[in-house]
Structure formats: C-alpha cells, structure tokens
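Record Chaperone protein DnaJ, 419 aa.
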Amino acid sequence: MAQREWVEQDFYKELGVSSDASQDDIKKAYRKLANELHPDKNPGDKNAEERFKRVSEANSVLSDPAKRKEYDETRRMYGSGARFGSGGGFGGYGQPGNAGGSQGFSFSDIFEGGGGNAGGFGDLFDGLFNRGGAAAGPQPTPSRPRRGSDLESELTLGFRDATLGVTTPITLTSPSPCTTCHGSGAKPGTSPRVCPHCNGSGLISRNQGAFSFSEPCPDCRGTGSIIDDPCPDCSGTGVTVRTRTVNVKIPPGVADGQRIRLAGQGQAGMRGAPSGDLFVTVHVEADDVFTRKGDDLLVTLPVGFSELALGATVTVPTLGQPVGVKIPAGTPDGRTLRVRGRGVPKRSGGAGDLLVKVSVAVPAKLDAAASEALRAYVEAERASGFDPRSGWAGAGSGASGPSRPGAGSGASGPSRSGA
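=>
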C-alpha cells in the first residue's frame, strides 16, 4: 500500500490495539478478527468482507517491523498538519490550492507508490525538489504500481512427506485478481486509458521560483490511467476477495517451523499491479519409527540377546526400501550402527545417514523348554568365568557373579565360587 494511503487509515484502530502494542499483541488481535470476519463464516456479508480486507491490510503493515516503523513515521509527519499552499509554501491542512485551477492536496498526497523504500524527510524532498535546484523541473516518470501485500499460511505434513518432499494444495481466502476484468479494473470489453493530464506518469510538475514541485495528478490520483467504465464486480480496483487453491511444492528435507516462499501468490495488487508473496510455515508431525537429527535419521531396533552375542543380519526400515544391517558378534546393548546415505535427502545432493540403535528385548514369559535352555546357558556362562558386573561399582571379580536362576531367597545374592 502506498504511503499516501497510510496517512488516511488508522491500522491500529482497525486491529483494536494501541500504537505501542507488541508484535505478539498485533498477531493475536489479527488472528481473532480474521477468524471472526472470514468470508467462509460470513457468506454474502459484504460488510464483513470489507472489514476482513481492511484488517488484512492493517496486519500486512503492522506485522512487519520495517513497514510498521515507516508507517509510524509517515503518520507522525502527517499529524503535523502541514501541506503545500498555492504559492508553493507550506499552508494550513485542507485548504484548497489555486495553482492551475487544480484542487489542493494534503501533505499525505506527496507519498505515492514508493513500495517499502521511502521514508524520512530525505526521501520526501527527493521527490519534491530537483536535486540541482534548477528552475526547470524534472521530467515526469511513470508511476510505479502498488504491489500487493504478502500473505502467510500454515501447513501440517506427515514426517515422511516432509522428509521426502511433496506437492500439496492449500486453500486461501484473500484479496485476489478479479476474474471478471483480469485485474485491470475496467469493465470487460473496455480498458483503462492514459490520463491526458499527466500523460500516464501519475505526476504533474510545476515551478515556483528556483524550485520545481512534483505532485500526484488530481485527475487519476497518481495511477497514470483513468477508468471510464469500472468493472462491476470489483468497482474498478481489480481485486476481489475469493477462495482459491494454491499448490505448494515442499522440498525434500524441510524442517519443522521452516517457511516456504511462493513468489507472486500473495495479495493481489491494485489494477493489475504485481501480487505480493505467500509464506507458508510448515509443521511436521512426529513419526512412530523415525526421529530426526539434522540430516540423519534415528531408529531404535529391538533385538534378542542371542543376536547381539552371536551376531546377525537384521532387516531395518528406511524412508524407501528396507535394508539389511549386520550386527557384529559381541555387540553391546545400546550401540548405534551407521548406514551411510539412508537418511534425510540434502538440497545439495545426497542424503544423511541412518543411525540404528540396538536395544535388547526381554521376553515377559518363557515356556519350560526355553527356561531350561536358559538355565543351561547360565551354567555354561558361569563356568567360562564371565561376570557381567566385573569392575562395576568397585565390585571385585567373583564377588558379584551371576545369580543361580530359580534359587530361593538367596538367589539375589552373590553366587558361591566353584558351585
């Protein structure tokens, strides 16, 4: 939105917040109002639709710290009540000028279509006075179209879709180019004509002594064109509020909270001006199998004791086809094995690794044959001299040897040497 229009609207009042409100307060106020005024909740209510547009415009400025600062500075200068009088000096606000028979204009009218780059008296006087101070004024330049505001949306994806990448549609209800006039603002079958007063520049220049002044053309209000037959659906603005579907391409490896920018998919500009951008914040759901650490995938693999002791090759899931992971004999519980190139795809090419953590699964109940076999193994283990707690907590060798399975009340105590 042009600075000239900023001074004519109180964005803080539109959102119902004070001028010193925090960014969080502005965000909360906008979400509340947008939810209440959304066209989907108020079908056919033109007042709610117009209010929704004004609230969206206010949020697009106040939610951006740079735009908000520029807006506040512009409002402060406008609040001084200054204007240019008919003689080229500063006069009282609202009094008509008499140069060339044209109407006077407010101090705010000198701001026009500068995008987000104008601000402060330096930029102000660059547009009013020629740099060299010569009597001849600068040649009018074509007015710049007012780019539409940026929009924000949110999207929730499953873990695997976010990791591998996906194209998914989202639905937006926002100001968009009018489908009847295709954004031109003119009634179908007609077209805007070049303003004869400013020759399409949007500016008129006049000399006052040693100075040359440029001001928005009063006939076309600085747009450079005149619409004789406005489009009935958008009233000549080229913009209507409608619901549309946008396909969002999510790149592989997107992280939770990451923002995706879709150029030109934001709010439409006035009268065919470029649209703003759409920023989509991605939220990623947790997965039942995988977790993520940077570009690596982590998975916990349940294994039996014998697989760790004797070694085995176990099938492990990945984001694509399962792979066989070799467990070396004597692998301790909790060790992490690495499978190269089976992790999260990287934007630079390749992929991270798959980290497989082995975890012993203990049976809750054994049948008679399994219990007898396990007791036999324990006897063989003790006979070999293996002590799982050797050196642990300062225990001496044999002092905390394995207990005899199936023993009575003394089963939890240390076993007798040579038993």
